[in-house]
């Protein structure tokens, strides 16, 4: 309980905003923009009827739930669906010790003109012990509830400044309604852009604002939007006790800084654990001016706004830009359209848990009336999508868990029954290979993925030695419960450094909670039995029953994580689209 | 056969001592192959998630089974105390999935002297192919293998041109 006075300060001192560069991190808070899905629909003439909106949130007069310090608020945004349930869209970061937080993390949502989108916001006070943990993994039930607010997105968009203030209300069971404060939203249209700017900033001769030690300075960079509204964009980490701090490189996308000539407000503040950060100095510069400062090796003096004389006091403290690099961050579509090949591989579950193919209740039921069984439906729907992205339409197809003609149970047999090769052509090829395999292979068990994952990894690693850039996607269509979790995790960890993604499609009604562990979305990286940890999350799980109940489309579910996984592989190795100039 | 390894100890996450996350400690990492070891610089601002980006080249004999990465912290008195260690089997970067020149991004679980989990360390390793010129670090391995001059499969050299020689018998 040593932290009850100050809270977990280390969590609050970290850098916020900017672009993460870890190989394992994928896109965050972006429920709307998915390149792969958009491309698929556009190719069929279905143009998206929405625009991407970015919401910045801030709150004031929140109630205090912490005993000795102020609340550490975080906001979560939900979309209310047709059945009344709330679907989480995104979360802001946690701000320490503040009842008037101005969150930096933005939440992106697609503004669909023709539907009524009800947004629900919940504000929580995050407990001290959760401060150093990635925001995505926080369990909301364990946090203190501070209030909620509801609004309709179109209402926000039609207001003159595109901003709205809502009163927070909440049910604390006391029967008395308290004043819980207000939540403000600011909406902006996002501009997808590829340019990323990376700067190394440092300062010299800053003023000392602390009594017994030196200042703990950090920078806060904000963008000035029309009507002098200030939108915070990013914050550097805090450097303790230093009047000449050197901060870690700051990476901003053009989406965040607007254009190269948009003025940015750069404030240098002294970090205080009470939450009241003191302003040391500020300056207004655009990105182009910062570039010029770097090239000419000049420094800019901070100014301190003074109210009495009407003239700002010019300080001795200076901001220096050591390095300024402009990079282009290519998107998933840039790679695909430049010649990066996506190769799909399919593996079908032939274990006995599916049920005897002759009984109508089996997932493998061969209906004489011609109706498709669950597997065939899954193959057709999924196949449409992958056929679109795979250039040569030749897919290696395997089955696992079945007893082949030679009497042995195989966990990676060729679906087409041939001994020379495992490829089939097109979705029709997969369907016919599946039907013939059903006739020739007896369902057996157990359900093991490791063999097919190893086979896919082997294919992926072979392609590395050739020069043509390829990315592989293994589709496993299965009915459920894994027998060998440890072996599967080992195989996935071994394959996590290769250009491979594994999409697991679940048919049937079993409980798929095991799969959620493999799909490492909660932030826990997979760990093998040998002590190796997965380099990145390469698994994605799609339950078909959610697709059939209409909650999410096949395309959306399948392709949701693929661009992120692809980019995480390609960017950390500095691989550019074919023919693009290397930067 | 001795190979040269280019190892980059990039960062660590979730460093713990006695099962609690460390705060405000200066940490550094040491890579050891056999008897040789190289240490990184101190990271004094990361706390339990330090970033070192320490690149070094070390020779590795063919008989080496694993290399070890150790993470230490420096006490105020100046002593170095070990937080944990990870062992990287040689097959993870030289083996069925990675050929020479491929940039491997690997992560391993650190365990302390009692065997408890105490964090994860992220490294990247390239096994340098035998060549006289040194490739610049961390250009994509795929682009470095697309050489200017065409090379015959597996031969890794320039095309040999030969001149036919006639023997003129007089």
UniProtKB/TrEMBL annotation, chain B:
It comes from the Eukaryota. SUPFAM superfamilies: C2 domain (Calcium/lipid-binding domain, CaLB). Residues 1-105 form the C2 domain. InterPro entries: C2_dom (IPR000008), C2_domain_sf (IPR035892), C2_SRC2/BAP (IPR044750). Transmembrane segments: none annotated. This is C2 domain-containing protein. It comes from Brassica napus.
């Amino acid at each position: 309980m040593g932290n009850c006075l100050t809270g977990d300060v280390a969590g609050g001192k970290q850098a916020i905003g900017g672009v993460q560069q870890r190989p394992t991190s994928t896109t965050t808070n972006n429920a709307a923009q998915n390149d792969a899905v958009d491309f698929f629909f556009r190719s069929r003439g279905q143009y998206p009827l929405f625009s991407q909106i970015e919401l910045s949130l801030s709150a004031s007069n929140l109630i205090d739930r912490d005993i000795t310090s102020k609340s550490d608020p975080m906001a979560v945004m939900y979309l209310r669906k047709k059945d009344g349930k709330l679907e989480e869209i995104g979360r802001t970061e946690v701000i320490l010790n503040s009842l008037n937080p101005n969150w930096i993390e933005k939440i992106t949502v697609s503004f669909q003109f023709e539907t009524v989108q009800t947004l629900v916001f919940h504000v929580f006070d995050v407990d001290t012990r959760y401060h150093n943990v990635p925001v995505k993994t926080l369990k909301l039930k364990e946090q203190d509830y501070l209030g909620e607010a509801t609004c309709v997105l179109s209402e926000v968009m039609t207001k003159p400044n595109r901003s709205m203030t809502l009163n927070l209300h909440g049910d604390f069971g006391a029967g008395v309604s308290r004043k819980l404060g207000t939540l403000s939203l600011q909406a902006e249209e996002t501009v997808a852009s590829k340019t990323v700017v990376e700067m190394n900033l440092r300062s010299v001769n800053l003023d000392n604002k602390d009594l017994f030690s030196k200042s703990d300075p950090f920078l806060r960079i904000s963008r000035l939007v029309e009507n002098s509204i200030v939108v915070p964009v990013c914050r550097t980490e805090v450097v303790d006790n230093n009047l000449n701090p050197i901060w870690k490189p700051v990476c901003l996308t053009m989406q965040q800084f607007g254009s190269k000539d948009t003025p940015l407000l750069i404030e240098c503040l002294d970090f205080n654990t009470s939450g009241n950060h003191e302003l040391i100095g500020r300056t207004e510069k655009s990105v182009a001016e910062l570039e010029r400062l770097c090239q000419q090796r000049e420094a800019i003096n901070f100014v301190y706004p003074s109210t009495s004389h009407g003239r700002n006091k010019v300080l001795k403290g200076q901001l220096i830009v050591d390095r300024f690099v402009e990079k282009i961050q290519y998107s998933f579509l840039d790679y695909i359209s430049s010649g990066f090949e996506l190769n799909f591989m399919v593996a079908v579950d032939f274990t006995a848990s599916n049920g005897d193919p002759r009984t109508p209740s089996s997932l493998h039921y061969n209906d004489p009336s011609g109706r498709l069984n669950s597997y065939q439906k899954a193959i057709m729907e999924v196949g449409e999508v992958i056929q679109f992205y795979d250039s040569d339409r030749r897919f290696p197809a395997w089955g696992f868990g079945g007893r082949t003609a030679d009497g042995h149970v195989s966990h990676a047999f060729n679906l087409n029954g041939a001994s020379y090769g495992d490829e089939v052509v097109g979705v029709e090829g997969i369907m016919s290979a599946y039907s013939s395999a059903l006739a020739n292979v007896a369902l057996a068990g157990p359900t093991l993925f490791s063999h097919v994952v190893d086979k896919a990894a082997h294919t992926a690693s072979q392609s590395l030695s050739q020069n043509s850039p390829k990315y592989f996607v293994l589709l496993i269509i299965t009915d459920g419960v894994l027998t060998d979790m440890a072996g599967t995790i080992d195989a996935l960890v071994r394959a996590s450094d290769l250009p491979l993604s594994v999409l697991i499609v679940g048919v049937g009604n079993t409980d798929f909670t095991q799969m959620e562990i493999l799909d490492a979305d909660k932030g826990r990286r997979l760990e093998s039995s040998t002590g190796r940890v997965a380099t990145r999350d390469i698994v994605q799980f799609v339950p078909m029953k959610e697709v059939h109940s209409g909650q999410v489309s096949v395309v959306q579910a399948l392709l949701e994580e693929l661009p992120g996984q692809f980019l995480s592989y390609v960017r950390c190795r500095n691989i550019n689209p074919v023919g693009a100039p290397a930067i | 056969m001795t190979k040269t390894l280019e190892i980059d100890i990039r960062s660590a996450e979730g460093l713990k001592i006695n099962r609690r996350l460390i705060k405000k400690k200066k940490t550094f990492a040491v890579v050891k192959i056999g008897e040789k070891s190289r240490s990184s610089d101190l990271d004094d601002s990361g706390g339990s998630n330090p970033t070192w980006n320490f690149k070094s080249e070390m020779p590795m004999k063919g008989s080496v089974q694993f290399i070890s990465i150790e993470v230490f912290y420096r006490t105020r008195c100046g002593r170095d105390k070990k937080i944990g260690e990870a062992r990287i089997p040689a097959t993870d970067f030289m083996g069925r999935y990675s050929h020479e020149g491929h940039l491997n991004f690997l992560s391993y679980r650190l365990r302390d002297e009692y065997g408890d989990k105490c964090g994860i360390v992220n490294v990247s390793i390239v096994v340098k192919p035998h060549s006289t010129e040194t490739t610049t670090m961390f250009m994509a391995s795929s682009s470095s293998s697309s050489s200017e001059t065409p090379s015959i499969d597996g031969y890794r050299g320039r095309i040999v041109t030969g001149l036919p020689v006639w023997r003129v018998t007089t």
